[in-house]
Specification:
434 residues, Glutaredoxin, five-stranded antiparallel β-sheet, 9 strands, 47% helix, 11% strand
Length: 434
């Protein structure tokens, strides 16, 4: 939740709260927007309220999701709000794994009551009628049955020592195998028994047909495990010992967790340059900022705990860019080094910039940075890569000898100036010559 809460304070630009134009500017960053974003980014009646909604959600949502009042409905509402926002990012922006990681982390907030309700609705009698018989002298066998029952969701499946039933016990002794009795009364051993257990699971049944195919191989695997169950039992005894109840973290673990919680909370506080909400008047004098002592930087640097949630903060960029790299071959021919095309490059902006100019979001991030002054030193390495790539692709009979790097920059017009007024007017900046 720190991702959202501290991000709200970092989004201090007037575009977020006062003007409500942040989404408009974000969706005009053609270097990272999807075709869907182009369809509605100039609909100010929609982008303005959505901008303010996103900001308020990031500010209040992390607080409400922990509320003890009306806990289940409020938490589910906040989860829906955050996940729907992340889905909006996925549909409109190419920002890599970030929204998927966020959605995964938000799912962990699902209340126990919700999981129980889903189980009652979709798996009311999972494992009913299924019985797994094991050798009562084999602790490893019992643990395996419990692992299957637990992780396959076989709530109503029974686990019984085979020796309690003379007929089942005789099968176990004769075949040296566990025995699984299906709801239909069929008695199965070895690998077919494993397939039957998966088939009885609500989510494991989809794997059952695939598991049933290599039956001969499966039986060999089962026999190998059964013949070495003593060694497996010793291994399981150390790694998965029996416990009377759930072992909760002790005071030492809680102390370590509490330390890092406080440490990261303080570090996040220090990332906010001015603790003032957009609708608050600016304080006189120097803006208030929490200081993070230099002496405390060690754990952060050692464990890479750096956190600064500054995406689109304090406001989205008001322009985008792409690279055009014309080159000259030894023969004097002009070529397009960036796109690996043996013809003169075009300086026109592609209709869908991201798809046309970037292989993936990591390349987009790299190229957007290598063209800035801060990362100027890295351009020679990128240039070496371009030269090597061209000569490896087209051979050295007519090698690349010279090329220029141009960064084509476009400024997003302010809202109300027409749809992308002057969108084709790009400023070409020569970055590097070689």
């Amino acid at each position: 939740m720190a991702v959202y809460f501290f991000s709200a304070f970092l989004k201090s630009g007037a575009e977020w709260y006062e003007e409500g134009t942040a989404i408009y500017y974000a969706l005009h960053l053609d270097e990272m927007t999807t075709p869907l974003a182009h369809l509605w980014r100039d609909e100010h009646w929609l982008t303005v309220p959505l901008t303010r909604y996103v900001w308020w959600l990031e500010l209040l949502g992390p607080i409400l999701i922990f509320t003890p009042l009306f806990r289940v409905p409020v938490r589910l509402l906040m989860m829906f709000a955050f996940i729907s926002m992340e889905v909006g990012f996925v549909l409109n922006l190419y920002i890599g794994l970030f929204p998927f990681i966020s959605i995964t982390s938000i799912i962990l907030f699902t209340p126990t009551e919700t999981w129980d309700a889903l189980a009652r609705r979709f798996w009311p009698a999972s494992g009913a009628g299924l019985t797994m018989y094991y050798d009562q002298d084999c602790s490893f066998c019992l643990k395996m049955c419990w692992l299957l029952k637990t992780f396959l969701g076989l709530k109503f499946a029974k686990i019984i020592p085979a020796q309690t039933d003379p007929e089942i016990g005789e099968i176990l002794e004769r075949t040296f195998s566990w025995v699984v009795v299906t709801p239909a009364g069929e008695r199965l051993i070895k690998w077919p028994a494993m397939v039957a257990v998966f088939a009885a699971s609500a989510w494991g049944r989809f794997l059952a047909p695939m598991l049933s195919w290599p039956q001969r191989l499966g039986n060999r695997v089962y026999d190998s495990v059964a013949n070495n169950r003593g060694a497996f039992g010793d291994w399981f005894a150390r790694l998965l010992p029996w416990q009377a109840g759930l072992k909760m973290p002790g005071w030492r673990s809680q102390t370590v967790a509490g330390f890092f919680l406080a440490y990261l909370f303080l570090f996040n506080l220090s990332t906010i340059p001015n603790w003032r909400l957009p609708f608050q008047a600016a304080a006189e004098g120097k803006p208030y900022q929490v200081k993070f002592p230099n002496e405390w930087q060690g754990p952060k640097r050692l464990l890479r705990l750096d956190q600064k949630w500054s995406m689109f903060a304090p406001y989205p960029k008001r322009g985008d860019s792409f690279m055009v790299i014309p080159g000259v071959l030894a023969s004097g021919k002009l070529v397009d080094v960036y796109d690996l095309v043996a013809s003169a490059p075009s300086f026109e902006k592609p209709e869908h910039l991201y798809d046309a100019k970037f292989e993936n979001y990591r390349w987009r991030k790299y190229l957007s940075r290598v063209s800035t002054k801060r990362y100027k030193a890295y351009r020679s390495y990128y240039g070496g890569y371009l030269c090597k790539r061209w000569n490896e692709t087209y051979g050295k009979a007519d090698p690349l000898t010279d090329f220029n790097m141009y960064r084509m920059s476009e400024v997003t017009p302010a809202t109300g100036n027409g749809e992308q007024a002057g969108a084709d007017e790009y400023l070409a900046t020569l970055l590097h010559q070689r």
